[in-house]
Amino acid sequence: MTRPILLQGGRVIDPSQGRDEVANVLLMDGTVAAAGRDVQAPDGAQVIDCSGQIVSPGFIDVHCHLREPGREDVETIGTGARAAAAGGFTAVCAMPNTAPVTDNQAAVGFIIRQASRANAARVFPIGAISVGQKGESLAEMGEMVGAGAVAVSDDGKPVVSAQLMRTALEYARTFQIPVIDHCEEPTLAEGGAMNEGIVSARLGLKGIPAEAEEIMAIRDILLARLTGGHVHLAHMSTKGSVELIRWGKERGINVTAEVCPHHLSLTEEAVEGYETNAKMNPPLRTQADVESLREAVKDGTIDLIATDHAPHHYDEKEREFADAPNGIVGLETALAVVVTNLVVSGMIDYPTLVDRMSCTPARLFHLAGGTLRTGAVADVTVFDPAARWTVNPNEFLSMGRNTPYTGMTLTGRATWTIVGGTVVYALT
Question: What is the pTM of this model?
Answer without folding.
Answer: 0.97
